[in-house]
Amino acid sequence: MEEEVNIDVLQDLYLKNPTETALGRSILKHSIVMIEEIGLEHFTFKKLAAQISSTEASIYRYFENKHLLLVYLSNWYWEYMMLNIRREVALANTPAEKLSAAIISILFSAERNVNIDYIDEDILHRIMISQADKVYRIQEVSSENKQGFFLAYKRVVICIGEIILQIDPAFPFARILASTLMEMPQQHLYYAKNLPSLTDLAYKDENSHHLKVVMENLAFSWLSAYHKAKTMG
Question: How far apart are CA 118 and CA 19, in angstroms?
Fold first, then answer.
């Protein structure tokens, strides 16, 4: 049996905590399915209300708009990933093993947790691949950043960066490497589905497993090359 998972999402993202009521959990569950099926552009609270046999007004009691709902779901995903990273890293012995464990957690946080019936992690993962640019690549990114909307994402990047520095405390690009590792799966899994000529993963059956190899190779090769260059001169 999977252990119980408690995810704390930034309170400023919602008007009423959706996890505390049956209606709120239904909003989360069905919005994930609908956004994945029709995209954020065509998703509306009116359509969601019809799907869950409720009213638009009731949904607006939980979320101010669909953008904040998407940011909420993204934060939930990042917090869930952070839990997975901490759990897997705690089982590793060396810094290199910890980095590999973190990479695995980035890639496989989509695995379904049976104790969370209102979030389908697999579908949410696909939303993050297809809709992530609508979370923080927007005109209001600076103001939303000041409000802390992306703290969960930053915590993951900082955590991975700290693991990288355990391998080489002098490595000056830890957060660049960490954020690159975070972005790579979204970018190339999106390419594989929609723009296959831009990636070598397009015709691979096990894309995540191939990405694991690529991400580990990138991380450890970069660290090794920097160490070698520093040693030589």
Answer: 8
Q: Are 48 and 121 in contact (CB under 8 A)?
A: no
Q: Which two tokens stand for residue 172?
A: 């000056």
**Contact assessment for residue 36 and residue 51, using Cβ atoms and an 8 Å cutoff:** no
What tokens were used for 32?
Answer: 């994930």
CA–CA dist 138, 99 (Å, integer): 31
Query: Using an 8 Å Cβ cutoff, are 189 and 211 in contact?
Result: yes
Percent of the chain with pLDDT over 70: 95
pLDDT at 222 over 80: yes
CB atoms within 10 A of CB 164: 25
Which is nearest to 19 in space by CA: 117, 112, 132, 110? 117
> What is the model's pTM?
0.91
Closest by Cα among 29, 131, 124, 16 to 64 = 16
CA gap 231, 233 in Å, rounded: 6
- The three state secondary structure string of 19-73 is HHCHHHHHHHHHHHHHHHHHHHHHCCHHHHHHHCCCCHHHHHCCCCCHHHHHHHH
Longest dimension (CA), the chain: 68
Rama region for 118: left / alpha / beta (φ>0; ψ in -120 to 50; rest): alpha
Are 66 and 127 in contact, with CB atoms under 8 Å apart?
Answer: no
Count of all residues that appear for the chain in the document: 233
- State mean pLDDT over 80-87: 94
